[in-house]
Design goal:
It is built from 8 helices and 16 strands.
């Protein structure tokens, strides 16, 4: 297997990887972006058809290129896919598609990144939100009656996928609420889980134009790992989910979506809820998030929960390794489209400083004549 040499390999070609590529290109660093998808933006293309971003277009731009839509509109899934593809092409970012990374290791001298089509050696590796995409489904799901259709939110595209009958959506965060609204016209929907709270204003109404900038300032500069309130919020977000942004409780009630207690197990083949009831449903849709898949990263850099031991994306125990795009990596905005650009800039700055130090150290000292 041939091995190519780069100063930096970015793993993941979504918004995090592209933002990282932009900042490295500005600093004239040598790098490549490896992405498993066939085309830039394909991971977004796999999400449900009616998806619109939770944030207005003015907050949906990656660094260096505004989003081509009215500032207070909410782009659709396909519009955002088009933007990502245009962004990669505009900045001529070196994305290698169909390059799923199967192994990341270190040989004592440099990082080794292996794909099905070749290997890469690098001084630096940036894992750009590519390690936590395994659907998280409880073990008891396997005990449900085989006649009940089960799918994860990552597999959901449209209501026609589901058979007739009642639907239990497990997970009441933003994705669960959005999918519940999508299904409500055609199915009876029960939304199971803890209510995560909600933003107390309509994000698509004119007053939001005054409130939203303040909210994003707080997400970026107040709710960070450096502040007590930010650290408390981080624990809440990682353990549960963030507040509902677009869909409100009254929207769900008006659409006929029924709130249900937490799903805690299975009884007689049916889902068992916390109040002891077992609804007779034909579909269970798991909107329960994702779990890390770190089996391909053969480096001791994870804690007991599977999270990387990093500070603002920098793994201090393994110089040259970085993580980008994780939920609340530095601030509440870290997992958002706009926030990832700031984190990428920070990592690019630290990476460049390290590379320059290594370069200077590699230059032999001048010999002083006797």
């Amino acid at each position: 297997m041939s091995t190519e040499r780069f100063e930096t390999v970015i793993i993941g070609g979504g918004q995090a990887g592209l933002a990282m590529g932009y900042h490295l290109a500005r600093r004239q660093r040598n790098f490549v972006i490896l992405d498993a998808a066939q085309r830039v933006g394909d991971s977004w293309q796999e999400r449900w058809n009616s998806l619109h971003l939770f944030t207005p277009a003015r907050y949906d731009a990656l660094p260096g290129m505004p989003f081509p839509a009215p500032a207070w509109s909410f782009p659709s899934r396909d519009e955002f896919v088009d933007y990502l593809r245009e962004y990669a092409a505009h900045w001529q970012l070196p994305v290698r598609n169909d390059s799923e990374v199967r192994r990341l290791s270190h040989d004592g001298d440099r990082f080794l990144v292996e794909t099905a089509h070749g290997a890469f050696a690098a001084d630096n590796v940036i894992v750009a939100a590519g390690y936590d995409r395994l659907p998280k489904i409880p073990d008891f799901a396997g005990e449900l009656d085989r006649g009940i259709t089960q799918l994860h939110s990552s597999e959901y595209l449209r209501p026609a996928q589901l058979p007739d009958g009642d639907v239990l959506i497990v997970g009441a965060g933003n994705s669960g609420a959005d999918i519940a609204m999508d299904l409500a016209p055609t199915h009876r929907v029960l939304l199971s889980g803890r209510h995560p709270g909600e933003i107390p204003w309509r994000i698509d109404r004119r007053p939001a134009r005054l409130l939203t900038p303040a909210m994003f300032f707080a997400f970026s500069h107040v709710l960070t790992v450096r502040t007590p309130i930010g650290r408390k919020a981080r624990q809440q977000v990682l353990a549960h989910s963030g507040p509902l942004v677009r869909v409100k409780s009254r929207d769900l009630a008006r659409a006929g979506v029924e709130r249900a207690p937490r799903t805690i197990g299975v009884r007689d083949g049916r889902p068992l809820l916390e109040d002891g009831s077992s609804p007779d449903v034909t579909t269970v849709l798991w909107s329960t998030g994702y779990r890390p898949d770190t089996t391909w990263i053969e480096l001791p850099v994870f804690d007991a929960t599977g999270e990387p031991t990093q500070r603002r994306g920098i793994v201090e125990s393994r110089p040259g390794l970085y993580f980008l795009g994780g939920l609340f990596q530095y601030s509440l905005s870290s997992g958002m489209i706009r926030g990832v650009g700031r984190d990428a800039d920070y990592i690019a700055d630290r990476l460049s400083r390290r590379a320059n130090r290594l370069s200077r150290a590699a230059v032999p000292a001048a010999r002083v004549p006797a």
